[in-house]
Amino acid sequence: LFLEQNADIAVKKDSIFTFTYLPSKELARQSNYSIRISGFRNPSREIFGNTTVDVQNIASVQQYQGDLFINFLEETQNQITSSYRRFGSGLDFYQVKGSGGVNIPSGYLFMRGNIALSNTLEIPLVTNTTLTYRQEQNEYTIGNINKLLEMTLVGRGAEYSHTFEKNQKVEVGFVDQNYNLIEENSWLKNGYGFYAKGMLHSNNSSRNASAGYLYRYDPFEKAKHNILGTEVNYDFNTDWKLNAKVNGAMSIYEIQDFVKPSFAGETNYSGKIKSFNINGNYYYSSDYYPGNRRGSMLLQQNITTNIKKHNLYANVILSDFSPKFYSFETQQKSANNRIEIGNRFPKFRDFSFNLGYQYQEESSNSYNQLFGNLDKNANQKMYANRIVEQLSWISNSSRQSAVLALETGIVKYPMQTDNQFQMKINANYSYRNFNINSTFQSGSYYLSEYAFSTIAGSGVNYEKLTMSLFYNNNFVNDKVNLSTGVSYIKDIVYGKSPSAFINAKYNGKAFSTFFNSSWYNYSVGSLSNNTLTFEVGVTVNLQKIILNPDQKGTIKALLYYDTNNNNQYDAGEKFAANYMININKVALQTNKDGMATYKRVPYGTYYLKQFTQDGWYYDDATFEVDRHTYNLSIPLHQSGKMQGQVSFNYNTNTVVEFQHRASGISFSIMKDNKLVKKVYTDDDGKYISFLPIGNYVISIDEKSLPANTFCETISYDITLKAGEIVVVPEFIIKVKEKKINTKKFSN
User: Fold this and answer.
1) CA 572 remoteness from chain centre
2) Mind listing the pLDDT tens digit for each residue in 129-167?
3) pLDDT per residue over 329-371, tens digit each?
4) In whole angstroms, what is the distance from residue 703 CA to residue 43 CA?
5) Which residues neighbour 647 within 8 Å (Cβ) at sequence distance 6 or greater?
């Protein structure tokens, strides 16, 4: 919410601004919140001051809210989405998904669900559905478990993690690799696995270490895979950072009846040497390594530097992918190498220009049948040399931009002796919410493109044309978003393929709705297809809850008027109705029975801050909540009353110019050299304050006096007694006098 007022502020005069607004339901549920106020000087909008006002909602029953930043966590997203989707003419899809949590006395429960129904499925499809219980440093999860480890484990299972005091963390889990949570007949049939992982300094992204063990049974390879590894992240300083992984594996193959060891290692680094920025990624895994990147080798190195206003860069990528399986006769082999060097020239007005050289080399045995080669292990190879140019133009004032990129070069294709010409040109133009893009390619840039072009006939040159137009905009105070576009693709693989889409979404506080639709058509020779898809749905936003993993209790505070000052409730003493207390930063007001309740409070230390109301006060106190119901008895003692005023004393004939203002003069009330309270005078120069009994010093704040005035006596010592009124001697404000020059004459 944003409110603004414009006004003229007079010199040496107080200005009062009143902002009125109705808090939202979500804000009204908060026990406290902050309002930020800033002052800007027109017309340059130069800020000259700002402040923050803390607002406390007062109620006899409050709930613990925690820190406001926790609202950004996923656990607060309590919402349900329901949608209907139709693919083509025969597939209907119904989906319900959502998430939400609830606090319980010892921790919290959080659930995430995703259920889908289709006319082609016999049973519902339940994925991404979990139930999590968090209790202090322990977390238990059951349902769909997705772990992106060295061997990916995705399916139904359970997971447990524990975080120790020094941010050391352990986690273990078991996964049955079936993505449908309620599948009945496939327990352990698609494979299963379990894992254990330990981490040091888990909350420190710059310096941490971990080690883990991973087991997976693969029914397709008939093998039991074991991986043991470690990972280290270490930032030496702001320039140099390192990540390193080492994994050793042991695979037991049932059919071959033997054990195969393997390993993998990876390192990533970034750093700076003088003006050179460098970073690299190096990875190697043996042929039968059971991890996600089996039989892979990658060397990637990037270097950039600035010479005057030129930005020079060089990139090298060498990769080889040759995994081996005992269950396949034909082993895949492929390699991709690329070298790039270039210069980003200095920007000229709104224009920028890049020029570079690119070398690309690719080899593979995956397309031999398309080439008519019966040797399955023979590698087909192509390599190309290209010049890459890019011209860009950006106009921020008109919200326009344009990019023209051109790649030209020569390429050597498999089974050809002569080099061939190839080119690619891309043009992109954006204006406000519109974007137009077009790409034309002549010649194959990859082996896959060249292989499919041979289907059309020997010597056929691969060509591809794409064109697209997109529009995106927000309406109705950004509550409605519309995104739409059309595109056209023409090449040997896809034929002529026009497509279009339109997406619309409304975002409200209580709910949001969306509509997505797309149309796709392709025609290759005698084959053609026409597909229309649309989806409608609604999301209902439920009340946000800040989940707390700690044990929780309820504070029940009972306030009474302790008339005999013995700090205990006696017969005949009355309960204090409508009295306000402060626990930490939360304000509560007692009901008619003198009771105030603070619910779902995490175990720990809390502070009762002293407050005076209607001549009665309670003392500061510290207490420890260590049980489900904590009863807090608060005796109220009668306070003393302090009142006083300021007055002016001056000679109108001799004083300098000043403002005769008695309001807004501040006083500091001290006790034992500590500030207890600040009070301010009203329009008549009077002030009043209720304080606990004791000895105080009240001092006038000379900075709050009108200009050219002063006070000779700036403080008084006072003693307050229960039920008595103490009148502070007047603070007499005097005014500076004019300098009068006197000249005497004599005979």
Assistant:
1) 56
2) 999 999 999 999 999 999 999 999 999 999 999 999 888
3) 778 899 999 999 999 999 999 999 999 999 999 999 888 777 7
4) 30
5) 685, 730, 731, 732, 733
**Cα–Cα dist 237/272, whole Å:** 11
| Secondary structure (DSSP) of 103-127 | EETBEEEEEEEEEEEETT-SS-EE-
Query: Residue 518 in 3-state DSSP?
Result: strand
The chain-wide mean pLDDT, for the chain, equals 90
Backbone angles phi, psi at 451, to 5 degrees: -65, -45
φ, ψ for residue 531, nearest 5 deg: -125, 130
SS3 assignment for 281-317: EEEEECCCCCCCCCCEEEEEEEEEEEECCEEEEEEEE
Q: Which residue has the tokens 């860009």?
A: 392
Q: Which fold has domain 640-735?
A: Immunoglobulin-like (2.60.40)
Tokens 């087991």, residue? 215
Nearby residues of 672 by Cβ (< 8 Å), 6 or more positions away? none
Res. 67 pLDDT band, cuts 50 70 90: low
Buried/exposed 153-180: b ≥16 CB within 10 Å, e otherwise:
bbbbbbbebebeeeeebbbbbbbbbbbb
Nearest CA to 155 among 131, 177, 173, 185? Answer: 177
Residue 728 in contact with residue 714, Cβ under 8 Å? no
Distance CA 201, CA 596 (A): 41
424: left (phi > 0), else alpha (psi -120 to 50), else beta? Answer: beta
CA distance 330 to 379: 12
Q: How far is CA 73 from CA 68, 324, 334, 548, in A?
A: 10, 43, 43, 12
Reference 735, options 703, 711, 718; nearest CA is 711
Euclidean distance between CA atoms 163 and 168, whole angstroms: 6
Strands 640-649 and 725-727: parallel
Q: Report the C-alpha gap between 152 and 292 in whole angstroms.
A: 7
pLDDT by residue (tens digit) across 181-238?
998 877 888 899 999 999 999 888 899 999 999 999 999 889 999 999 999 999 999 9
Which SS3 state, helix, strand or coil, does residue 388 take?
Answer: strand
Query: pLDDT value at position 488?
Result: 95
What local confidence, expressed as pLDDT, does residue 546 receive? 81
pLDDT at 563: 86
Cβ atoms of residues 340 and 313 within 8 Å: yes
Using the structure block, give the residue that is written with the tokens 């071959």. 256
Question: Is-contact 443 421, C-beta < 8 A?
Answer: yes
Q: Strand 61-63 relative to strand 79-87: parallel, antiparallel, unpaired?
A: unpaired
Q: Give the span between the Cα atoms of 421 and 215, in whole angstroms.
A: 51
Residue 239 corresponds to which tokens in the numbers above? 């320039």
Contacts for 677 with CB less than 8 Å, ≥ 6 apart: 668, 669, 689, 691
Nearest to 623 by CA among 639, 603, 642: 603
Q: Are 228 and 289 in contact (CB under 8 A)?
A: no
Is pLDDT of 484 > 50?
yes
Query: Model's pTM, two decimal places?
Result: 0.77
Residue 747 pLDDT > 90 = no
CA distance 549 to 105: 9
Q: Is the pLDDT of residue 6 over 90?
A: no
Q: Summarize pLDDT for 272-311 with one digit per residue, the tens.
A: 999 999 999 999 999 999 999 999 999 999 999 999 999 9
Name, in order, each residue with C-beta under 8 angstroms of 744's C-beta and a sequence gap of 6 or more: none
Ranges of H-type helices in 291-410: 368-371
Domain assignments of the chain as residue spans, ordered by start: 1-57, 559-638, 640-735
State pLDDT tens for residues 602-617: 999 999 988 888 888 8
